[in-house]
Give the backbone structure.
Amino acid sequence: LPAGGVPLRLCGTRVALEGINKPVIDRIIRVDHAGEYGANRIYAGQMAVLGRSSVGPIIQQMWNQEKDHLKKFNELMVAYRVRPTVLLPFWNVAGFILGAGSALLGKKGAMACTVAVEESISDHYNSQIRTLIEEDPEKYKELLQVIKQFRDDEREHHDIGLEHDAEAAPAYSVLKTAIQLGCKAAIFLSERI
């Protein structure tokens, strides 16, 4: 402690943690960070396969937004003192494989993957918004704003996928269901581990 007995704050990005429901906030920030990390890896995989195709600029545009999302959740993890999921190395590989694998099915396959993932994530964000509103909308105002904005971005990506023939992908409903089951499992595990 310095001479006045007041502790120095070494990091101005931290938030006051008094009065927050730490387990709920930890779970939300950890899983959202993991999700945005995974989304970045999916788009990286899609760009590796389709980056020079006609759909490359569209994928890049969505990826750029996901990079911004990940940057914000990196900041929130520090501010709220949340540890990342231990599964990040797995999501690193799994996300890239999902992105590249769906892109190997062509533009429609990549867009089907985008629709499935972004629908799952926006539904998950809606659930988190309800939780935070039930907790205390004023206390979690900043976090609610972030999640609402990112949810809207994910819905936009979902709609872009539909506009670019996602539903015409081979075995679209099977592909979408399988990817969404994977998303639910990833969410469940990343919240807890």
User: Anything to note?
Assistant: The mean pLDDT is 93. The chain has one domain: 22-191. The chain has six helices and no strands. The helical segments are 22-50, 56-79, 88-104, 107-135, 141-163, 172-192.
